[in-house]
Amino acid sequence: MSEYFATVAHGLESVAADELESLGAREVKPDFAGVGFSGDRRLLYRVNLWSRTIFRVLVPIAKFPSPNSDRLYQEVQKIDWEEYIKPYQTISVHCTGKNRQLNHTHFTALQVKNAIVDQQRDKFSQRSTVDVLDADLHINLHINGNHGILSLDSSGPSLHRRGYRPAVGKAPLKESLAAGLLHLAQWQGDRPFLDPLCGSGTLPLEATLKALNVAPGLFRETFALMKWSDFDESLWKELVREAEASCREDLQISIGGCDHNSEAIAQANYNAKKCGVDSHIRLWQADLSQVEPTGDNGLIVCNPPYGERLGNVEELGDLYQQLGDILKQRFKGWTAFIFTGNKALSKRIGLRTSQRIPLYNGALPCTLLKYELY
């Protein structure tokens, strides 16, 4: 059994913990912007392949005092780096957190890199070079107070970048956040789903992939762990085959999204085709005033603009009021979840919430509002 740490968006820690437990993780412990857990190599591979809400899976290899740059350098040099990387391979170092002396993440990461390559140069007269985008070994250092936790990053590029979404709108949700909203909305693919303000389609696409039981990692060709010296290719291929075999071929419910912007809908349809779900989802151009229910009950999840990046706040008030009116008048029997970062705008919806879930979109405090429509 090994210890791991999954990094997640702040606010989704409990969601990621649920997901990890469903994948077989043990000793699951939510923390700030992450979740600690334990398991074997099979679990490490499964989490990278299947997680919908996690950014990266880290494998801690050392914890040590790091009050300043000199002590950090000394502690990193104590590690036998030959076990993890050869001088002809490339590295990248990413740092999070800070303390009084180590208060610039780029400088802190540079100290870690220097300690590693100086050890290599002393041993082999040769040293690794840095490759930020496609390194052979991705290293993560987290500074917490006067201590540092050094980890190997098993994922590489963030897992939220599925690879199916080259076309995005002006203010897209991260795929991982969209998946988190669906989890909180208890989406199981067992009732009609609609996003009446879908933009480039992230929410309905993630809803379709979850309903079809498609592992998000199937869209990616590489993960950082594939370059590790102990990578078990046969185990990985076994897990990929299992994931491919578990995909559902048909849906018994409708999943759809619409938007008034024709360019956004073109992007959404392109993305749907890119991830192979275009035959399972309907994405169409329509003004909010034209939206109608597709059944007597179902689930609405949407992320209307809230003035941070798109639209004028005063003008958006009319949109929120219209959204509330349409939900009340046309969608009796449905449940709606609205994700917003503007409290004043949310009041314009004019409906009583049955639940308010605090979340973040990046650094912006937001709320997921639940409405039972009777």
Structure overview:
This is THUMP domain-containing protein. Pfam families: RlmL_1st (PF22020), THUMP (PF02926), UPF0020 (PF01170). With 374 residues, the chain is of the alpha/beta class. It folds into two domains: 2-153, 2-Layer Sandwich (VC0802-like), CATH 3.30.2130; 175-213 and 255-372, Vaccinia Virus protein VP39 (Rossmann fold, 3-Layer(aba) Sandwich), CATH 3.40.50.150. It has helices at 13-22, 41-50, 69-77, 105-124, 175-184, 202-211, 233-245, 262-274, 313-330, 343-347; strands at residues 2-8, 26-31, 34-39, 54-65, 90-96, 129-130, 137-144, 147-153, 193-195, 255-259, 282-285, 299-302, 335-340, 355-361, 364-372. It has an eight-stranded mixed β-sheet with strand order 2-3-1-4-8-7-5-6. Strand 12, helix 9 and strand 13 form a beta-alpha-beta unit. Helix 2 crosses helix 7, helix 3 runs parallel beside helix 4 and helix 5 packs across helix 6 (202-211). The model has no long low-confidence stretch (mean pLDDT 94).
Question: What layout of secondary structure does this protein have?
Answer:
Blueprint (H helix, E strand, L loop, with lengths): L1 E7 L4 H10 L3 E6 L2 E6 L1 H10 L3 E12 L3 H9 L12 E7 L8 H20 L4 E2 L6 E8 L2 E7 L21 H10 L8 E3 L6 H10 L21 H13 L9 E5 L2 H13 L7 E4 L13 E4 L10 H18 L4 E6 L2 H5 L7 E7 L2 E9 L2
Parallel strand pairs: 5-6, 5-7, 9-10, 9-12, 10-11, 12-13
Antiparallel strand pairs: 1-3, 1-4, 2-3, 4-8, 7-8, 13-15, 14-15
CATH architecture verdict of the largest domain? 3-Layer(aba) Sandwich
Strand content: 15-25%
Mean pLDDT: 94
Query: Which structural category fits the helices and strands?
Result: alpha/beta
Kindly give the count of domains.
2
Question: What is the CATH fold-level name of the largest domain?
Answer: Rossmann fold
Q: What is the CATH level 1 assignment of the largest domain? A: Alpha Beta
User: In percent, how helical is the residue content?
Assistant: 25-40%
The geometry reads as elongated
Question: What's the CATH H-level superfamily name of the largest domain?
Answer: Vaccinia Virus protein VP39
Strand arrangement across the biggest beta sheet: 2-3-1-4-8-7-5-6
Radius of gyration: 23 Å
The low-confidence runs, each spanning 5 or more residues with pLDDT under 50, are: none
**What's the N-to-C terminus distance?**
50 Å
Q: Would you list the SSEs in sequence order as H and E?
A: EHEEHEHEHEEEHEHHEHEEHEHEE
* Number of strand elements: 15
Please summarize the sheet with the most strands.
Answer: 8 strands, mixed
> What is the overall number of helices?
10
Protein name: THUMP domain-containing protein
Domain THUMP: 43-154
Keywords: Methyltransferase, RNA-binding, Transferase
InterPro entries: DNA_methylase_N6_adenine_CS, RlmKL-like_Mtase, RlmKL-like_Mtase_CS, RlmL_1st, SAM-dependent_MTases_sf, THUMP_dom
